[in-house]
Amino acid sequence: MDPLVLVPGLLCTEALFAPQIGALAGDGVKVQVADHRQDETIAAIATRLLGEAPPRFALAGLSMGGYIAMEVMRRAPERLMLLDTSARPDTEQQTENRGRLIALAESGKFDQVTPSLFPLFVHEDRQEDAALRALVGQMAIATGPQAFVRQQRAIIARPDARPFLGAIACPTTIVVGDGDRLTPPELAREMQELIPRAKLEPVAGAGHLPTLEAPDAVTGLMRTWLAA
């Protein structure tokens, strides 16, 4: 089975995939988590990923990680999983919202960023989940304000990936929480329609972070995808 490279989302660390990493390690899968905190463009992050990855690998990215994964696929198509992401570029409103969060981080108010984002990160039924809120906060602290700003600037400048999706020839699984409000299911369906060999897998009861909200369901999808 090919090694697996995982790409976390904005403000997230390897803890985003901790349930899957533990389960897949038991299956003998070698898992590597990409570094998406050092660079200020999606292209540069993809270059770093490819420089550190094995010669052949399966690739899965969530949210911002999906933007990076689509850039990697232009250069090294093998096997792809996209989780709660979008092929579209930022809208004007999204860029304005990111600018406000960047301003908070750069003015010493980084502690206000996670409380602003958490309600959008998780399913509406998980809003009062203290353990999940704490984990998201821990990942944000580990990321830090400077890396957060780099990530946001990379996301703002990302290209429209839709014109290139038709060239993805490898088996592709698209996963989306059925309650994701940041990259809702209709964006996942759009990618499925554009990628020739794509399969869509909605995750019930999950929002934008299904790897943590419904870990067993996502682990099962990863096992099926890796074994295909």
TrEMBL record:
Coiled coil: none
InterPro entries to which the protein is assigned, alphabetical: AB_hydrolase_1, AB_hydrolase_fold, AB_hydrolase_sf
Top-rank taxon: Bacteria
Pfam family, one: Abhydrolase_6
GO MF, any single term: hydrolase activity
Positions of the AB hydrolase-1 domain: 41-218
Alphabetic keyword roster: Hydrolase
Protein's UniProt name: Alpha/beta fold hydrolase
